[in-house]
Amino acid sequence: MTDNQFIKNLEYLINKYIADKELAAALINRANSEGAGAEKWIMRDFHKNSAGIEEVDGKVIKEIAFNFI
Predict the structure, then answer these.
(1) Based on C-alpha coordinates, what's the Rg of the chain?
(2) What whole-number distance in Å separates Cα of residue 57 and Cα of residue 34?
(3) pTM summary value
(4) Do 25 and 49 touch, CB atoms closer than 8 A?
(5) Are 31 and 7 in contact (CB under 8 A)?
(6) 69/55 Cα distance (integer angstroms)
(7) Boundaries of domain holding 8
(8) What is the DSSP letter of 2?
(9) Which residue has the higher pLDDT, 61 or 36?
(10) Tens of pLDDT, residues 30-52
């Protein structure tokens, strides 16, 4: 997974699962400015603020974790 794929997948997940639009915008901005280097921080906040992840999206999260943690 490239940095661009990481950002694309992360934006999809954030837009789908983060209800707080200000937090979502902050997470996306950080991903765009820092790339995959911000993965741990972004995923931590994503997990704290999301619930009910669909199985297919869980696979995307696992792929991000595998490639960037």
Answers:
(1) 11
(2) 23
(3) 0.85
(4) no
(5) yes
(6) 20
(7) 3-68
(8) -
(9) 61
(10) 988 988 788 888 888 888 998 88
If you search the block for the tokens 């997940």, which residue do you land on?
Answer: 13
What value, to the nearest 5°, has the Cα angle with vertex 13 and ends 11 and 16? 105
CA atoms within 13 A on the CB side of 23: 17
Q: How far apart are CA 54 and CA 59, in angstroms?
A: 9
How many domains are contained in the chain? 1
Task: Supply 45's token pair.
Answer: 């906040």
Q: According to the model, what pLDDT value does residue 15 have?
A: 94
Contact at 8 Å (CB) between 31 and 11?
yes
Task: For residues 65 and 69, give the distance between their C-alpha atoms in angstroms, rounded to a whole number.
Answer: 5
